[in-house]
Write a structure and sequence with these properties.
The complex is a heterodimer of chains A (112) and B (115). By secondary structure, chain A is mostly beta strands. Chain A is 0% helix and 55% strand. In chain A, strands 2, 4, 5, 9, 10 and 11 form a 6-stranded mixed sheet that branches. Chain A has a 5-stranded antiparallel sheet with strand order 1-3-8-7-6, with no helix packed on it. In chain A, β6 and β7 form a beta hairpin. Chain B has no helices and 11 strands. In chain B, the strands form 2 sheets. In chain B, strands 2, 4, 5, 6, 9, 10 and 11 form a 7-stranded mixed sheet that branches. Chain B has a 4-stranded antiparallel sheet with strand order 1-3-8-7, with no helix packed on it. Chain B is globular. Chain B is mainly β and 115 residues long. The termini of chain B are far apart. The chains are: A mainly beta (112), B mainly beta (115). Chains A and B meet through β4 and β5 of A and β5, β9 and β10 of B.
């Protein structure tokens, strides 16, 4: 069985500061890992995904994430936060097939 | 075209009404999904269609009835809903690639309110 734990339901950063959103997963087989972003009253948009290969994955809008198998983590980072990054972020895991398990989500607040 | 469209954007219905939600994609994806999302929660999978056949039903009550008329369209028929069914209903699509990481493309959702 797979599961995803996002540490911190709310994260607040100042504009220009580092963004770090934490995600740990559990999977009995090699996982596929995703980060999605959801802006208010919108659907989810894929930021980045890890399937195989390079463990540092770059996504859209300056975000990146590193797959660390030994720590079962897939944390999302961005060097410098922008006001437009304020949104809900979901980490997700899949082991193939159609089912994707989403974490509970982390709301990112960006202060001016 | 990398867009999934959903209509209507908002829907208010009574518990005795019958209504339908519609979803459309033109990316050539052969898998389509319905999710339900309550406020401040992650999406919950309801149904998956693969090649226009129902592949997954996550024990959804029969008052929700999905339909996939063709590879581009997905409907969700609603009948005799309860107030607790009020939520954001999201449609998504993906490649038919069971062995890979199926990234999903989501529509903007339909905000449903049941009175």
């Amino acid at each position: 069985a797979q599961s995803v734990t996002q540490l911190g339901s709310h994260v607040s950063v100042s504009e220009g500061a580092l963004v770090l959103l934490r995600c740990n997963y559990s999977s009995s087989v090699p996982p596929y890992l995703f980060w999605y972003v959801q802006y208010p009253n919108q659907g989810l948009q894929l930021l980045l995904k890890y399937t195989t290969g390079a463990t540092l994955v770059k996504g859209i809008n300056g975000f990146e994430a590193e797959f660390k198998k030994s720590e079962t983590s897939f944390h999302l980072t961005k060097p410098s936060a922008h006001m437009s990054d304020a949104a809900e972020y979901f980490c997700a895991v899949s082991t193939g097939g159609f089912k994707t398990i989403f974490g509970a989500g982390t709301r990112l607040f960006v202060k001016a | 075209d990398t867009e999934v469209t959903q209509t209507p954007k908002h829907l208010v219905m009574g518990m005795t009404n019958k209504k339908s939600l519609k979803c459309e994609q033109h990316m050539g994806h052969r898998a389509m999904y319905w999710y339900k999302q309550k406020a401040k929660k992650p999406p919950e999978l309801m149904f998956v269609y693969s090649y226009e056949k129902l592949s997954i039903n996550e024990s959804v009550p029969s008052r929700f009835s999905p339909e996939c008329p063709n590879s581009s369209l997905l409907n969700l028929h609603l009948h005799a809903l309860q107030p607790e069914d009020s939520a954001l209903y999201l449609c998504a699509s993906s490649q038919e690639r069971l062995a890979g990481g199926n990234e999903q493309f989501f529509g903007p959702g339909t905000r449903l309110t049941v009175l």
